[in-house]
Design goal:
With about 170 residues, the protein is of the alpha+beta class. About 40% of the residues lie in helices and about 30% in strands. Strands 1, 2, 3, 4, 5 and 6 form a 6-stranded antiparallel beta sheet that branches. Essential component of the TIM23 complex, a complex that mediates the translocation of transit peptide-containing proteins across the mitochondrial inner membrane.
């Protein structure tokens, strides 16, 4: 019975005779590069997801700050009614409505400003909001904020007036 070899022993006997091929430098490096590229891609996807879902862009921070100020003002609720809905661009396209038109610029003192324009609708009317905000001490502050009311009666409501610029005499 010693002549009988089980199939497992026969398989081990065959595979033990195959010499192992050494991994070359190029092959090892290529595997490392593929792994690094995959990790880099995964990091980029993770960063995009986190920045899109958790971190708000500056234009949305300013938009929300303006909207809170507008909703707290009784002059707006008298003219437009409650609730007031805000959106970026007048369009049937949902993505266009969610985009808030804005532009950044720097003033003569080197402060960063952002101008916003968005639309409001309420049960009694609609309006266009124009705002200018500036960055000071890491916080966005209002320079001006006004509404151009289109309905029911055309008028302009100034919520925050721009500060006058005083120039010193030379």
């Amino acid at each position: 019975m010693s002549d009988l070899v089980t199939s497992e022993e026969e398989f081990d006997a065959i595979t033990d005779k195959i010499p192992q091929r050494p991994v070359g430098i190029v092959e090892g490096t290529s595997y490392s590069l593929i792994i690094l590229a995959a990790l880099g891609f995964a990091a980029a996807v993770l960063y995009a997801a986190v920045s899109e879902l958790l971190l708000q862009p500056a234009e949305y921070l300013c938009f929300n700050k303006c909207l809170d100020r507008i909703k707290d003002d009784p002059r707006v609720t008298v003219r437009l009614g409650e609730p007031v809905h805000a959106y970026g661009t007048e369009s049937r396209n949902r993505a266009a409505r969610q985009h808030v038109p804005h532009r950044f610029y720097d003033d003569s003192e080197g402060r960063q400003h952002m101008q916003l324009q968005f639309h409001l609708t309420g049960p009694r009317g609609r309006a266009t909001v124009n705002a200018d905000m500036y960055m000071e001490d890491g916080e966005w502050k209002h320079n001006f904020l006004y509404l151009d009311v289109h309905e029911p009666q055309r008028q302009q409501v100034v919520l925050i007036r721009p500060e006058p610029v005083y120039q010193t005499a030379p």
